[in-house]
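Form 7-S
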Amino acid sequence: MNGRLAGWIISVALALPPMALAQTPIVSGSSPIPPPIIGVVDVDEIQQDSLAAKAVRTQAAKYRQEFQQQGGAEEAALRATQQAIEQDRKTLSPQELADKARAFDASVADYQRKELARRRAFEKSFNLAMGKVQQAMYDATRQVALAHGANVILPRGQVLLFDPKMNLTKEIIVLMDKALPGTDFPPPQIDLEPLTPTSANLPVARKKN
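Output:
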């Protein structure tokens, strides 16, 4: 039986790869490549301080808690059922015991199915919401870079040393907050996959006599 809902590790690509804002195809007779004018962006700071990212975290926490409570209640019920079967093991006939064990295994399979559906729904909503934040970050980064004449933008995590004047993060956050002061977290839509003969008969570890 799966452990309680915990961890909820969500991987969302909100990293800012090196961005070249002035890319000109190199062809014979074209103008020489301009010298790089580099700006630096702290993506972690944007995720922490921008209003839109904060709104996503707040809404995500609400749904995460709801799903954890649902999963915890279902697992507690399964544990109680398993304990009841163990207590009645000596008083039940082999057929009765087999029937209860089969029904319990089906309940575990249903629980696992719901857990997977909840996780998928949460991840889908989270990724949609963070996608809007990411787009706002790119748009703001481009505007700030152009305002400073920068033609290359590097994420802070890939730069060992740089002049603090090259850090455009706070200006980007200001523009982001104006353009996207908040964003909706789409309510997770639980889509349960139908039980298959295999998943309906998953083995469950039970105590031996």
